[in-house]
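Section 5.1 Outputs to date
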Amino acid sequence: MTDRTRPDRGRRIALLGAPIDMGASQRGTLMGPAALRTAGLAKLLDGLDFEVVDYGDLSIAEVRDLDDSPPDKANHYREIQRWTRALSRRSYEIAGTGAIPIFLGGDHTLSMGSVNAMARHWQERGRKFFVLWLDAHADYNTPETTITANMHGMSAAFLCGEPGLDGLLGDDPRVSIDPDGLDLFGIRSIDKLEKELMRARRIRVADMRQIDEFGVAVLIRRVIERVRASDGVLHVSFDVDFLDPSVAPGVGTTVPGGATYREAHLIMELLHDSGLVGSVDIVELNPFLDERGRTARTAVELIGSLFGQQITDRPTPSNAIAPGE
């Protein structure tokens, strides 16, 4: 009998699209879920012997507005509030089916709903919950520290319980993660006040200099060992601008000097070998800015590596359980 309190709880994957783009500086990420499907995400996962259920794209047409007062510096707060509530509710329901959820974005405000739901799901099962934030940006701004007021730059801070967006979920449960359970990886753009807040909270950051000095394998293994030592579960929030723009041009917030194609695949392969990944976001893909679907195809290939696609058969390390075993 399958133990559903474990992240390796069966070879089933659930896809849920969140076509949201008002949290970003450039519109177009609402086409991201369709681009990932067109690039063959479900077919690839099916070929890896997963049972894939696609729940389609979430809609907020029937979600009512709340009557709280929006923060002064939070663009499109009301629409994002509706998305966050709808995503948190639906994501929590999907997690309860025992499938591994993959959330298709959409900009990074998606994570305010998806990660909140997954944190709630695992808290109820007595498991410590960790988040690996693969991103060029820290996304640790608040309405008080932000320069742009774009809410996709506030996602990680909201998830760690920072004040300023306290009414975002209304009366729905908000389950914040411990700042010690967040790993920002591949970061190369942080605002001044954001950096000060992160330093005060002791947020763990592996920036591109550290990656250059130590290599992705060493740094990702450190993350994996921390999660394993706590018998934890890992959520991977994958912003495609984590990749270098030469690899992934289809994003609205490109920053030079990102992860290479090979580095990104190695990260995903090591995460797969760990058996600790319980859920995934794919965010900030903007097909309007892409080159003939190149970024979407790259993202799909990386998710393939995360779920076991490999060139040659390799034995899984004895201390790791592959997803679905």
